Amino acid sequence: MKQVTVDDVDIALYHLEDGFYATSDLCTHADYHLTRGTLYRGVVTCPRHGGKFDVRTGAAVAFPCVMPVETYAVDVRGDEVYIDFE
């Protein structure tokens, strides 16, 4: 995973076996950068309190997180990755 910034908004970009995914980089529970956490089988763990999110859907999958993170469509063209930020 990697943090990228688009229009002053931090986005987390994930590369999984089945493709690329993007979410807001901020945990909805702790307002902390998810890219500072860990990624395992498509689930990112926030390092602040251990809440977890499915990076494919944005769904919160482990307490204390209950609100999903925003997701963004990703398109790969050759060697370039595009994030649909709008």
From TrEMBL:
CDD domains: Rieske_RO_ferredoxin. Keywords: 2Fe-2S, Dioxygenase, Iron, Iron-sulfur, Metal-binding, Oxidoreductase. Signal peptide: none annotated. Gene3D superfamilies: Rieske [2Fe-2S] iron-sulphur domain. GO terms for molecular function: dioxygenase activity. InterPro entries: Rieske_2Fe-2S, Rieske_2Fe-2S_sf. Residues 1-83 form the Rieske domain. It holds the Pfam family Rieske. This is 3-phenylpropionate/trans-cinnamate dioxygenase ferredoxin subunit. It comes from Alicyclobacillus cycloheptanicus.
